[in-house]
Design goal:
By secondary structure, the chain is an all-alpha fold. It has one domain: MFS general substrate transporter like domains (Growth Hormone, Chain: A, Up-down Bundle), CATH 1.20.1250.20. Helix 2 runs antiparallel to helix 3. It starts with a helix and ends in a 6-residue tail after the last helix.
């Protein structure tokens, strides 16, 4: 009786593989599915840490301090993490980082559950977590090209983006519900389980990797920095990404403040973050349907500029007390920002030499660490003005940088994702 469904299933599988051929490679498929557990855990614990800090202190500035604790170790170590990713057995590196993070989150869950948690506990564990992910993230970026053929590489990039965007869409709402009905310690315990799952799966993946280079780690570090600095497209794209993460996207770091203004509690906080996740998915899918051979610069920079307009709409909705409007504006900000982020990341992933991938893309991941660090800047500015004004001022600076690049860099306007 189930036979009529078999041809449908086969056609669906054929269609999926035609769109995302990387899923046809068993090792990549296992890695991709395991990444959902660990990346989903990352989204959960980010929500839990922010809400726990706000419960402990009730301060926008302290939320910024939490962001700094997450950002500074990552920024300081990411370049070294890229060297480690290019130099050592990537599988063993990921097993080690997953085991360390699992332990840190288990400790945080226990401290929170027992009622012994203090601000310094939270800041210390967040800093150690950040230090570990500064090695974990570049290694993830460096390993998955070895799990697929070159012909399927573009789809692997897109699928990895889908992991981050889809978990960003679902996990905050789920986390908000968990916190409201249970407590933040449950979120941290689930996060530990997610990274333990990654450890188990990675331990079973065996892949042939290139031998470590002969030159010293310091020489490798210099090579990565030199390549980015002397390659115009990379230098320009990373500049825009860094400025955007620090001055504009960092508004997410003080989102508990806006949830408090709207009087929506933990669930409202989770829904606001999830609205951003939905927007990111929509933006990612929209960019994925575009012919990569056409010039992408105007689309990419236009998305970045338009995201500032959506940010202004968000602040207007906050001032009006409209939760529904704030959800829609958050969706727009994320969708438009994703047009820039996914397009620029694809361009860099395709163009970077394999031998430099861990270091160069490690530098790219530093941008995500600048987002919580920007939260410290926004938190301090919000204390002096207001949360809405702080976000508007910083986003306008980002807009100035985007427009100046748009007007003065014709090569950037005509760039494609082909080598």
């Amino acid at each position: 009786m189930h036979q009529p469904f078999i041809p449908c299933a086969l056609r669906a599988r054929k269609f999926i593989l035609s769109q995302y051929p990387a899923l046809g490679f068993a090792l990549y498929r296992r890695y991709w599915l395991a990444s959902f557990a660990s990346v989903g855990a990352t989204q959960l614990i980010g929500l839990g840490q922010g809400w726990l800090m706000f419960e402990l202190t009730g301060s926008a500035l302290q939320l910024g301090v939490l962001g700094a604790a997450a950002a500074i170790p990552n920024i300081a170590m990411t370049l070294v993490g890229g060297v480690i990713a290019d130099r050592f057995d990537k599988r063993r590196v990921l097993m080690t980082t997953s085991a360390i993070i699992t332990t840190l989150l288990a400790i945080l869950a226990w401290l929170d559950w027992s009622g012994a948690i203090e601000v310094w506990h939270l800041l210390t564990i967040v800093a150690l977590f950040s230090l570990t992910t500064s090695i974990d993230w570049p290694t993830r970026v460096a390993i998955y090209p070895h799990l697929v053929d070159r012909s399927a590489f573009i789809s692997a990039v897109a699928l990895n983006s889908i992991i981050w965007q889809s978990t960003r869409m679902a996990m905050p709402a789920i986390g908000g519900i968990i916190i409201s009905f249970a407590d933040t310690w449950v979120v941290f315990a689930l996060g530990a389980g997610g990274f333990f799952t990654m450890f188990v799966v990675i331990s079973g993946i065996h892949v042939s990797l290139p031998e470590a280079p002969d030159h010293s780690p310091l020489q490798q570090l210099k090579q990565g920095i030199s390549y980015v600095w002397h390659t115009d497209i990379f230098r320009w794209l990373l500049t825009i990404s860094f400025v955007g993460m620090f001055f504009s996207q960092s508004y997410v770091q003080i989102m508990p403040v806006f949830s408090n203004i709207l009087e929506t509690g933990e669930q409202g906080f989770g829904y606001l973050l999830s609205a951003g996740g939905v927007g990111s998915i929509v933006g990612t899918l929209a960019v994925g349907s575009i012919d990569n051979r056409r010039p992408l610069g105007n689309l990419m920079l236009g998305g970045a500029a338009a995201s500032v307009g959506a940010m202004a709409l968000f602040i207007v909705c906050i001032n009006l007390g409209s939760f529904a409007g704030a959800l829609f504006a958050t969706f727009l900000v994320a969708a438009l920002s994703s047009v820039y982020m996914i397009t620029s990341m694809t361009i860099m992933q395709v163009r970077v030499p394999d031998s430099l991938r861990g270091r160069v893309m490690g530098i790219h991941t530093m941008g995500y660490s600048l987002m919580p660090l920007g939260g410290l800047f926004l938190g301090a500015l919000a204390e002096q003005t207001s949360p809405g004004s702080a976000v508007l001022y910083s986003s306008c600076f980002y807009l100035v940088v985007v427009l100046s690049m748009w007007l003065t860099k014709p090569t950037l306007r005509s760039v494609t994702s082909e080598r």
